[in-house]
Amino acid sequence: MRLLKQQIELKDGSGFATLLPEEPEDMPNDLLRARAMRRVTKESDSGSVASTRIALDLTIRVTSTDFDVGSGQLHVAGKVAAESEHVKLGSYHTLDLELQRKFTIEKADGWDSVAVEMLREALDATKRAEVWAVVMQDGLANICLITEHQTILRQRVEVPIPRKRKGGLDGHEKALEKFFSTLLSTLLRHIDLTVTPLKPLLLASPGFTANSFLTYLRNYATTNNNKPLLALVPLILVAHSSSGHQHALAEVLSSPAVLSKLADTKYARETALMDRFFALLRQDDGRAWYGPREVERAVEKGAVGRGGGVLLISNALFRAQNVEERKRWVGLVDRVREVEGGEVRVLSSLHESGKRLESLGNVAAILTFPLEDLDEENEEEGGGEAQGQQNDMQI
Amino acid sequence: MPPKSGHQRVKQLGYDGDDLYYDDDYSDEGGGDGLSPEDKEQMRQGTIQVKAALASSISVSDAEIQEALWHYYYDIDKSVTYLKSKSAKVEEKKSSGKLDILIFGLKKLFPYPIPRQSSYKHVAVSAAEFFNDTPWLNVPIHRRGEIIVEPLYPRGGLLGGSSKPSKLAALAAARKRKQREDGVASVPDNADTSHDKEPDRAVALLDRLSLKDRAKEKAPPSLGSSEQPEELSKKKPRQTRYPVRRKKSPSPPPVQRREEPSGPIPEPSAAIEIPDLRAPPSTFAAAMIGANRMEPQPRPLRGSMFSLPYIHNGWFTNANAFAGPSPDDIVMNAQAKGQKSKKVPSKQVNGGKSTNKLTESVSSLTIEEAPKVKSKNLNVLQEFEKSNMKKTASFVVIGHVDHGKSTLMGRLLYDLKVIDQRSVDKLRKEAETIGKSSFALAWVMDQTSEERSRGVTVDIATNYFETEKTRFTILDAPGHQDFIPNMIAGASQADFAVLVIDAGTNSFESGLKGQTKEHALLVRSMGVQRLVIAVNKMDTISWSKARYDEISQQMTAFLTAASFSPKNLAFIPCAGLTGDNIIRPPPDGTIPGNWYSGPTLVEALDASEPAKRALSLPLRLTVADVFRGGVMNPLSVSGRLDAGSLQVGDTVLAMPANETATIKGIEVEGEPVDWAVAGQITTLHLADIDAVHLRLGDIVCSPAAPIKNVKSFQAKILAFEHVVPMSVDVFRGRMNAPAKVTKLVAVLSKQSGEVEKKRPRIVQPGSVARVVVEMEREMPLDSGTRIVLRADGATVAAGLLESV
Predict the structure, then answer these.
(1) Which among A199, A351, A381, B164 would be 20 to 30 A from B260, CA to CA?
(2) What residues does the eRF1/Pelota-like N-terminal domain cover (chain A) (predicted)?
(3) How do residues A67-84 score in pLDDT, each as one tens digit?
(4) Is A359 touching B (CB cutoff 8 A)?
């Protein structure tokens, strides 16, 4: 993302930013101005209708967004907020934001800290590590692209492989060979080998499948004298995963071998953080909590503060179109960061770590001191939520 | 009846156009001539006699007979012989279709008559007269036919240029006229169309598959006559056909020939637009050329000035009986042009009808190719009771990696002579060449190249052996942590388990932390009650009693904690590599102080109680493998029959694909059988289903009581690790599906099963909880199914599906 122009008053949060997306992640909200093509119908005095397509700058008030992971386009629908000679106020338009097309965002209810933070993060052009990863097991492979912001499942390869049987070994070995060749050709369709520097490739599987595939790939590259592919071979990293399903990627990314190579990328940090959270949760000493209400209560009590308090929150919560909802979470983030002095980590819901967080209710916290029974009031369905009072019920 | 030969149809395609051209050359040939009354009488009687002699064995037209009689001077015997041999010849010729296609092609090149031939047009003396006294009898019959190649040149100029038809021709024409007059009424067109239709239909319909639409477009609206639709549907595709594609069709049906001449072709018609100016080949030409199937298309007679002597020759007319539009068609086409709009409805009816026929015949074709498997309609349960089957049991061999599971089983099979000495010697030799001689016995089970080169079992190996009491199925599971999914698949098929423990120093301890523990817990949670613990590698610790006791004490404590009942545990010391105490007690002196005198491993296996069979429940079979079972059985699945029974011919339903299949064959332990019941590990050969609908872990069930596809379910689980809402893999037999624990409903009391804590934050290892699991994709699951949840390479929990 490149910032072309910015004018945001940090005090009152008014202002706008003009941006040029270079990465397929951004979530404009509220007022969006971008160039668009629109078909304009004009009725002449005589009653004949002429229809032309014209390019014009449109400002819309966003009502919904839809991100197309495949094409990297964000479709933003909304009502036209600024009238022009061609477009009436209040008519609907869907803007397609795509890479290398600039747009301007203006927050109707002001730029809050999370939005500014997001913008800053998006503008951080320093390091952009991207890795191809293939998690596989016999007969199943998921080809994923891991970027700074998201993990995209590009293709799932499934080839039925007969199991070993008396007298039926041929079928097994042949099918395995076919699986490898299908996987390799699919992979080569996705990986662009002409781009330099080449992105590293991560192969992970239980057992020997990944190693066998690497051998297959190397043999293929050598026999076909495929130079670009040969150049990729040294960049291939083989890791262990417990299965070939996509969620096994989390396990791969947290393995030491991979972390050492990918350390200090955003997703590696996020993965490590989630692991730390789960480790604490397992200890069950009341220092790790998850779920909206529990975390809010913990923050109330000042447990997510200086000295190790971490708030983990998925950016899915900020995408909420409901202003109240969004304010609730922005308020929580602000409180932890400004008042309590704790650390806030916004995890991308498009990442493996974000998905792990998602199953925990999109928000979790590591506390500075143990708290018990944060969840006890749930039985009353939020009866004491506002007060955040601790219930004395014992386990 | 066989379909029409290729060349016939080929010709039918082309003749309507180009034949007319060079046939015009004969237009002025022929003429009236008569036989003397005596001759006629003689001929008539001769014909009758010859016909009688020939009976129905060979179909020959009257004209042919008369011609033969003429040549043989009314010698009936000779004529009969001649006709018989000739018709044999004709048939032989007809099967060689390629030649005709070649000729046809050449004709196409010369659609117009070659000018040269016009010089033969007015030959003063006819060829027939010229050769009148030629001794025909001396010409060997087999040579006559060879001339068929000739008609490269437009026929007849040289040979057939008789200025007037022979007497015989005139006679034939006369007869024919007569026949027609009284035959028109009596021989309905339908009769022969239906004859012709039958053999043709299969092929013609196939052609219409592609050409139907076009044919329909072009089809002239019928006049509404009853036979019209059939005629149309029969003829149209032919006209649009390419010649060369039909080369390989089977030979022509000889049977039809008799009927055809009396067909609709000579049907007189008042309004024939095309003047018929062609002459047929002369007698001489016919004789010289023999069975010439390149004859011009028969045409309406009345419009022509001249009679056509050979129109009734079977081999003459048969070839292109329906080549062009029949006179009727021509008329109708012409008329139809004027009343097209009126006829549209009938056209549609026509199209619909032929479509129906097409569907019918296509479906009947399929049936012929793959005859339905007949069910014997056995009462399987009764059969099962009657059969008094020997006790059967399957067991899974589990334990930590490298504790010697495969070797122990290899030794067992070898000692029981299931594997012969030669194979074992061969394996030994192979193992030694790669420096792994101790793996030789394990290779009996580990057969893939990967397993052998790495020395690790990867997948379940199945083998069979039999003792006096029981028939056993061995499921040798991999011990390595990565292959626990395969081990689960094996354990789900087993009645009981054999836990192999390495008695060697440190090995037992490392195993107890590793897969010894995990496997034991897994098989328990999958419903295995009985466990035979083989304390293996006793030879490495010189059969130390102290070590054995230590191991059995520790294991008993652990296993009873894992809710195995102590009476279902049996500890057997043994040594897989040497074979001691597997099927026979170790030789004297092996055991210091002979402290062990209990049962051998096989005796302990034999002591197992037969498992209960869920015979009366609806059919459930978990697919453990999908493979190609050979040329005859392109698609086979194998797996344990969890419940119910099945027999050959049954229709089953594969879930989650929801596709039905027919059971073509059943195999149990490699032997074909007619039926199978719950508890047996069977191979089903399936028909009427595509392989894409079957995956490992699918359920084969009965269509009457299908299993439901489930997206989310509630389960009671025993946690092995901490359970929080997280991603897990759900295992059920071979099924391995990604899912999420979405909700922790409650922690339950281990004893009473009552709710201890609602909505826990985390489920601690060892506790029982109720959780909601949501699958990524719908999977077939029944309530009451045992499942295993794994995450990050560790078994998180095992449980029982409560509700779906």
Answers:
(1) B164
(2) 1-124
(3) 666 666 777 888 887 777
(4) yes
Distance from CA of A12 to the nearest CA of B (A): 39
Residues of chain A contacting B741 with CB distance shorter than 8 Å:
359
Mark yes or no for CB contact B448/A169 under 8 Å.
yes
CATH code, domain carrying B798: 2.40.30.10
Q: How many of the other CB atoms lie within 10 Å of CB of B145?
A: 17
Q: Which residue of B has its CA nearest to A352?
A: B727
A208 contacts in chain B (CB < 8 Å): 450, 454, 458
| Distance to chain A for B263, nearest Cα, Å | 59
Which CATH number describes the domain made up of A131-262?
Answer: 3.30.420.60
CB B83 within 8 A of CB B240: no
Helices B327-338 and B340-369: crossing angle, nearest 10°? Answer: 130
Measured N-to-C along each axis, helices B515-525 and B484-491 cross at an angle, to the nearest 10 degrees, of 40
Query: Residue B277 in 3-state DSSP?
Result: coil
CATH number of A270-380, picked from 3.40.50.2300, 3.40.50.150, 3.50.50.60, 3.30.1330.30 = 3.30.1330.30
- Is the residue at B372 inside a domain? no
Q: Does B630 touch chain A (CB under 8 A)?
A: no
Q: Do B74 and B217 fall within a single domain?
A: yes
Which of B673, B701, B729 lies at the terminal end of a domain, its last residue? B701
Q: Taking CB atoms and an 8 Å limit, are A243 and B454 in contact across chains?
A: no
Distance CA B718, CA B763 (A): 9
Name residues of chain A where pLDDT drops below 50: 22-28, 125, 127, 378-395
Q: Does B458 touch chain A (CB under 8 A)?
A: yes
pLDDT digits (tens, 9 = 90+) for B73-118: 777 788 778 877 777 766 555 544 444 444 444 445 444 544 444 4
- Same domain for B534 and B657? no
Instruction: Count Cβ atoms below 10 Å from residue A283 Cβ, excluding itself.
Output: 12
| The pair of three-digit structure tokens given for residue B45, joined into one six-digit string | 């009687």
The CATH 3.30.420.60 domain(s) of chain A lie at: 131-262
- Residue B377 in any domain: the answer is no
Does the distance separating the beta carbons of A207 and B736 come in below 8 Å?
A: no
- The overall average pLDDT reported for chain B is 72
Binary contact (A356, B458; C-beta < 8 A): no
pLDDT of res. B274: 55
Tell whether B788 is covered by a domain: yes
- ipTM of the predicted structure? 0.71
Write out the residue range of the structural domain in which residue B662 sits: 620-701
Min distance A378 CA to chain B CA atoms (Å): 8
Which positions in chain B touch A144 (Cβ < 8 Å)? Answer: none
How would DSSP label each residue in B300-331?
-STTSSS--TTTT-HHHHGGGTTSS--HHHHH
A179 touches chain B (CB under 8 A): no
- A173 close contact with B: CB closer than 8 A: yes
Segment (H or E) for B129: helix B127-130
Q: Judge if B627 and B586 occupy the same domain.
A: no
> What domain count does chain B have?
4
Fold of A2-112: SH3 type barrels. (2.30.30)
B460, B741, B764 ranked by CB distance to A284: nearest:
B764
Interface list for A 38-77 with B (CB within 8 A): none
Q: How many CB pairs under 8 A join A and B?
A: 113
Q: Would you call B482 and A207 a contact, using CB atoms and an 8 Å cutoff?
A: yes
